[in-house]
Amino acid sequence: MTTSNPRSTPRHLTTGAQGEDLAARYLRNQGLVLLSRNWRCHEGELDLVATDGRKLIVCEVKTRTTTDYGHPAEAVTPEKANRIRRLSRRWRAAHHVRWCPERFDIIAITWPRNAEPTLQHFPAAF
């Protein structure tokens, strides 16, 4: 029998999951209702899908421990933004949601080891 060792999980995956937890709490505290988290299809994954009751809000979460290689939000390239838009259409089809107003946000988190995280929300980032 093989058991999972938490220490064997790559640190970047743990950091990313912690960042998504923080982002989800932040969005709920802003009054949004989370509809999906880490929704996957064959084309990729949406981190967080939420609503404010009027529009669908698709949120890409980027968490980094440092800004040595740039700000976390800079990781959302035009190609990545286009893929997220395509995935949003797939999410709506899978959940039988007809066209509705959408907003695409980025939540950028810098979370140095042994320090408090900094969260920046960029509504309508792309």
The overall strand count is: 5
Strand content: 25-35%
Low-confidence stretches: 1-5
CATH domain class: Alpha Beta
Question: What integer value in Å does the Rg equal?
Answer: 15 Å
Under the CATH scheme, which architecture would be assigned? Answer: 3-Layer(aba) Sandwich
Overall mean pLDDT stands at 92
The CATH topology corresponds to: Trna Endonuclease, Chain: A, domain 1
Q: How many alpha or pi helices?
A: 2
Order of SSEs, N→C?
HEEEHEE
Brief summary:
This is UPF0102 protein BLA60_23870. The chain has helices at 11-29, 78-94; strands spanning 33-41, 44-51, 56-64, 102-110, 118-122. The chain has 126 residues and is α+β, with helices and mostly antiparallel strands.
Explain what this protein looks like in three dimensions.
InterPro entries: Restrct_endonuc-II-like, tRNA_endonuc-like_dom_sf, UPF0102_YraN-like. It holds the Pfam family UPF0102. Belongs to the UPF0102 family. There is one protein chain. Residues 1-5 have low confidence and may be disordered. This protein has two helices and five strands. The chain is an alpha+beta fold. The chain has a single domain, classed as Trna Endonuclease, Chain: A, domain 1, CATH 3.40.1350.10. Strands 1-2-3-4-5 form a five-stranded mixed beta sheet, sandwiched between helices. It starts with 10 loop residues before the first helix and ends with a strand. The protein has helices spanning 11-29, 78-94; strands at 33-41, 44-51, 56-64, 102-110, 118-122.
